[in-house]
Amino acid sequence: MNTSFLDAALATAQLLIGLAIVCSSIRLVLGPRAQDRVLSVDTLYVNAVLLFLTHGLRTGNPYVFESALVIAVLGFASTAALARFLLRGEVIE
Q1: How many whole angstroms separate alpha carbon 9 and alpha carbon 92?
Q2: Would the CA dihedral through 35, 19, 22, 72 be positive or negative?
Q3: Residue 4 to residues 1, 25, 72, 86: CA-CA distances in angstroms?
Q4: What is the number of structural domains in the chain?
Q5: Which domain holds residue 68?
């Protein structure tokens, strides 16, 4: 595969993932309910993982992949904790 095509594809992917992060951040701020905010946080961490992975593919830095794994684990734990608090009705707004 041509290297310049791969770089262009990864740059385009990073741009689109950045746009998805902006859209998710807007939903986080404007979300009318707590459930919308939890879903936007979940989407934010998934997009952050994807952004880290595309950056790691572009640079070839192996530490970026480890950071993406840490973000994924912490994001899952935070989403599970927020969902548990929403089910109990103990979310302070």
Answers
A1: 43
A2: positive
A3: 9, 31, 29, 47
A4: 1
A5: 3-88
Length of the chain: 93
Task: Report d(CA 5, CA 41) in Å as an integer.
Answer: 32
Task: Write the CATH number for 55.
Answer: 1.10.287
Residue 75 sits at the vertex; the CA angle it makes with 48 and 15, to the nearest 5 degrees, is 10
Two structure tokens written together for 19 = 């746009």
Question: 16 in a domain, yes or no?
Answer: yes
Answer whether residue 93 is part of any domain: no
pLDDT digits (tens, 9 = 90+) for 2-55: 788 999 999 999 999 999 999 999 999 998 888 888 899 999 999 999 999 999
Residue 74 DSSP one-character state: H
Burial of 15 (0-12, 13-18, 19+ CB in 10 A): exposed
| The pTM of the whole model exceeds 0.85 | no
